[in-house]
Write a structure and sequence with these properties.
By secondary structure, the protein is mainly alpha-helical. Helices cover 60% and strands 0% of the residues.
Length: 135
């Protein structure tokens, strides 16, 4: 083989080795573990199955999930600012009131579409859930 052919062969070998290492990092499939698919400790991730009669509710669920994620991020940022002493007492009070109203409104919207805040926590499979567990 020519040196160019060896380079391609070496490169393919490197790619194959990298792929093998990457696949070893993936979680084992239920078949590899020798147990039934639904016998694990973790529930099977929910699949989105939407139809013409549920499309509005499913879309609302997705939008509310994103809003809840942003709300929780804002809440954490606010707590960090309060802990750091970056806010005046008046700002802390307004921020607390705003976050409580937002949480209340989220609960109302969920109730309107027969959802709970736990329904908004999407299971991302091996990554875990989108939102942290409720306290």
């Amino acid at each position: 083989m020519t040196s160019e052919g060896n380079q391609h062969s070496d490169r393919f070998g490197e790619v194959a080795d990298a792929a093998t290492r990457a696949f070893r990092l993936l979680p084992a499939t239920p078949h590899e573990l020798g147990r039934p698919r639904n016998a694990g400790a973790r529930p099977v991730p929910q699949r989105i199955s939407t139809g013409p009669d549920t499309v509005e509710r499913d879309l609302v669920k997705l939008v509310l999930t994103l809003v809840e994620l942003l709300r929780q991020l804002m809440e954490r940022q606010a707590l960090q600012r309060v802990d750091a002493g970056d806010l005046t007492e008046e700002q802390e009070e307004r921020l607390g009131t705003t976050l409580m109203l937002l949480h209340s409104r989220m609960s109302e919207l969920c109730a309107q579409y027969d959802l709970s805040l736990q329904d908004l926590n999407l299971d991302l499979g091996p990554l875990g859930t989108l939102l942290p567990p409720s306290e």
